[in-house]
Amino acid sequence: MSRLVVASNRVGDITGGTQSGGLVTALGDALRDGNGLWFGWSGQIVDTDDKLGLTLERQGAVTIATQALTEEDYAHYYLGYANRALWPVMHYRLDLAEFDSAALEGYREVNRRFARALAGLVSADDVIWIHDYHMIPLAAELRALGLENRMGFFLHIPFPSPEIISAVPDHAWLVDTLFAYDVIGFQTEQHVANFGRYAEETAALVTPESHPFRAARRKLKVRSYPIGIDVEAFKAMADTPEAEDRIRRLKRGSIDTHIIGVDRLDYSKGLPDRFRAYRRLLHLHPEHAKNIVLMQIAPPTREELAAYADIRMELEQLSGAINGEFGDFDWTPVRYVHRSLARDTLAALFKGSRIGLVTPLRDGMNLVAKEYVAAQDEADPGVLILSQFAGAAADLAEALIVNPYDADEVALAMHLAVGMRREERIERHSALLERVRQRDVARWRRDFLRDLRDGTGGATAAAEG
Ligand code: ADQ
């Protein structure tokens, strides 16, 4: 079977145990089974080009290849273009997007350099799986170096509607580079449709000069591959004696209903709107006073960017204001933790909380929603409240689906969840759990790799699953 090569901005520790999440969980087995290679940024920032290096490290059967970024690369490629331009646009926040040509140039340059480093490490029959918005043009740069390998791309965040993506000054170039792949994967059918509509509406503009990859008409497969989690592993973390002990500590005191939110402190996650909806609940239903607590775990992320500093201030002000207005000597309505917690602690908190509040304004998928479902006690499960704008909503219809912009609707959902009878909770939860199990991370990986390997003559071995 052809070797798997993965490229993503950050690489994970493949030896990490149950505490690792994200791509490590998702791709670890596939990389290990095929003596794979994982390429990405080392996380280091150096002051000059001559210190970039290319570090190769063996972790069991897997080779980890990393390269540093210069301070300028970090400012332009990572902060400037990926996170100040693409991230907000893909999450429908044109008001927060900033475009400048130096950032774009930095993004192109780093992808060109990554391509040169990676090209020296791959053999002709390797299949290459590239991840996320930092590396959209990587295949195009690899093709420019003459690589004919099968290449696939998975976008973890939304592909927005054509009206939105067209606001990117260089969208024609950016989207054209997607046509250098053999397989493009999106999280949902809606993202596939958005991409299709963009391609259709701009088809008349395609010339070999303006859109070299589209004009070349490589056979391209575009599909949705909804990402999932390792359900049994997450469930097991919520079922240990340590988890039970944490749940007991969480539930010490007289609170009946714990509401949990777990999100990186990112403006796409809708945290201020969520807090305002909770405030609305406390206004409309004073009977919940002293019986309910919202615990929000929100670790820092991308703090160098002003939009992230702003959202932190806003959230701190809001939680202070809610506690000041409603709190009492024996009750703190909002508990806000601006820190990352261990995954087994999260699993216990999910299990101990009657309501899981997942209300992003826009999200590619949202794995917290799936983790919350997996962690529940099947005999007495909690209620998931889920934004209609999370990719996960396409699969998880038995959650209470809400419009996160509508504080009244979210407050009503919380109120209904507090009073929901056990039979209804069990009915909704068992349907959700079945869906989360069906669409798990193994299936995501297997489906994508099957399509990526299709045509290489390589068998889709059971080991991939
Ligand atoms: P994210 O935007 O990071 O991912 P999400 O899918 O929710 O969003 O994944 C976050 C992960 O980090 C979860 O596993 C969660 O448990 C963990 N996490 C969050 N807060 C934490 C905390 N305080 N401590 C420890 N762990 C924490 C992007 C896209 C999503 C898409 C994923 C995967 O934005 O839409 O679902 O990639 O494709």
UniProtKB/TrEMBL annotation:
Gene3D superfamilies associated with the record: Glycogen Phosphorylase B (3.40.50.2000)
Pfam families, A to Z: Glyco_transf_20 (PF00982)
Superkingdom of this protein's organism: Bacteria
PANTHER family given in the database record: BCDNA.GH08860, TREHALOSE-6-PHOSPHATE SYNTHASE
Family: Belongs to the glycosyltransferase 20 family.
Protein name: Trehalose-6-phosphate synthase
